[in-house]
Amino acid sequence: MLRAVAFAVAGRHVAVLSECSATCRLLDRYLFPELPRLDSDGADLVLRVERQGASGYVVRSPDNLVVRARDSASMVVSLGAWLDDELVRGLTDRIALHAGAVCWRGRAVLLPGPSHAGKSSLVSELLISGWEYWSDEYALVDCAGLVYPYPRALVLRSADGRMRALPAAMRQASTGRGPAPVRLIVRLDYRPAARWNVRRVAQSQMILELLKNTPQPMTEVKMAAPLVRLAAGAACYAGVRGEASEAVEPLRELVECGA
Amino acid sequence: MEFIAKNQNLLIENLPDGSVAVFDAESRAVHALNAQAAAALRACGQHSTLPAIALAMSRELQTRADDAAALEALAQLEASGLVQCVGREKAAAEPSRRSIFGVAAAALPVVLTLTAAQQKAYADQAGSNVPSISAFELINGRLCDMPAGSSLTFRITGQNTHFVNGTTVVTSVRGGFSIDTVTVVSATVLTVTGTTTVTYFGEAQFHVVTGAEDLTTTYMYQPC
């Protein structure tokens, strides 16, 4: 019997099907686990997951094989990454920012940065300290410059380089619903053993940083308008951090002082 | 020496902190000006001589901006294509810029630029870092034209992949195709040459493994 895990995200109705109940439980646990589950009827993005015994898993769209994985851990990570790229590519009324997004007492904070910048690690530490989870990968911005969550399961790199998915609930964190204006944007570079050192930067400079972390090419000037509105309402900082656990308190101070 | 601000095809966004974002609709470049550089650009729109621009900057910033500070701002604006210097060598060559040294960093004008090509390059990189196959092409004909025994060459293009000659292994998942050679062109491109073993070979599916990097891709039959 075909079972489904279905949800709405980034303007799409996604349904992931499987005949294996164990696989469905896995998908329910790791695919956007905080989003309400929907009926699969009417989904515009349908995927099917097949378990192939010792060979692992394959995930198919109606037209193509999208993921092959040897085990469940790598399957959920690879499927999540494929969904990220597919959903971002299909955005029509919002801009995706490659950024961690969290909320402290109603104040949304963006942490833009490319891969390997340590966004997921920092977001994970913030959740442990009681921050609200919005995303460790993308923040979605509408034309008014308001930010929406993209609450996928966090993806953390272990010491051996393997990636693993971690639902925010495992950090005892609540997940935001949005939208909200951003009050603080902090562009951080991670350097081992570095001390926290950030400085305030001009809002116009932060717009450039946001453009560097937008996976959609800006083919028209008007496409940047939402980023202008977003930056106009935020205090902007850039700098260096060391271990994620040591960045939690400085970030809390920045957001609480109203920057 | 006079300075003329470019005022065509520009969208200027004034931010609450006094900085300015300038969007060039023609080149699709984006310029970020801090408050000092923004004051210089605005002054340049109303005045053209260095002393007048410096005076206008001083009034807007409510702090003294001498000719050297104004010249530094204008030099950066000129380098970004937002201002044109008429009548002399480029503003950057003016010797009085040397006096800018010693001014507090916070008071220095700053103009940063992101070109359209740079933004696109960042956009291409700003996705997830998980390896994937982004293109799978047959580069010597069409599948529907190939009888059994035909030689086919496919090109596989990856994203965030790490193909390595001698390490990457490609196997044919579906029947009907026998792989002869695999050539790794780069970390993200390889070619696979082989022979069809059935008539009406309609689909190629390859399993591409490089260590722990395990990918599968399918090339579908296209009707002639």
Q: How would you describe this protein?
A:
The complex is a heterodimer of chains A (about 260) and B (about 220). By secondary structure, chain A is α+β, with helices and mostly antiparallel strands. Chain A is built from 6 helices and 15 strands. In chain A, the strands form 3 sheets. In chain A, strands 6, 7, 8, 9, 10, 13, 14 and 15 form an 8-stranded mixed sheet that branches. In chain A, strand 9 and strand 10 (about 145-150) form a beta hairpin. The relative contact order of chain A is 0.14. The mean pLDDT of chain A is about 90. In chain B, a hairpin with a 2-residue loop joins strand 12 (about 205-210) and strand 13. Chain B has helices at about 35-45, 50-60, 65-80, 115-125; strands at about 1-5, 10-15, 20-25, 30-35, 85, 110-115, 130-140, 150-160, 170, 175-185, 190-195, 205-210, 215-220. By secondary structure, chain B is an alpha+beta fold. In chain B, strands 2-3-4-6 form a 4-stranded antiparallel sheet. Chain B has a 4-stranded antiparallel sheet with strand order 7-8-11-10, with no helix packed on it. A 3-stranded antiparallel sheet of chain B has the order 9-12-13, with no helix packed on it. Chain B contains 4 helices and 13 strands.
The largest inter-chain interface, given as chain pair and residues per side, is: A-B, 45 and 45 residues
Q: Give the mean pLDDT of chain B.
A: 81
Helix/strand structural class of chain B: alpha+beta
Distance between the termini of chain A: 55 Å
Distance between the termini of chain B: 68 Å
Count of DSSP helices of chain B? 4
**Rg of Cα set of chain A:** 18 Å
Write the layout of secondary structure elements.
The complex is a heterodimer of chains A (259) and B (224).
Chain A: E1 3-9, E2 12-18, H1 21-30, E3 45-51, E4 57-60, E5 65-69, H2 72-89, E6 95-104, E7 107-112, H3 119-128, E8 132-135, E9 138-141, E10 147-148, E11 154-157, E12 163-166, E13 182-190, E14 197-200, H4 203-212, H5 225-232, E15 235-241, H6 244-256
Parallel strand pairs in A: 2-3, 7-13, 13-15
Antiparallel strand pairs in A: 1-2, 3-4, 4-5, 6-7, 6-8, 6-9, 9-10, 11-12, 14-15
Chain B: E1 2-5, E2 10-14, E3 20-24, E4 30-33, H1 35-46, H2 50-61, H3 67-79, E5 83-86, E6 111-114, H4 116-125, E7 132-138, E8 151-159, E9 169-172, E10 177-186, E11 189-196, E12 204-210, E13 213-219
Helix pairs in contact in B: 1-2, 1-3, 2-3
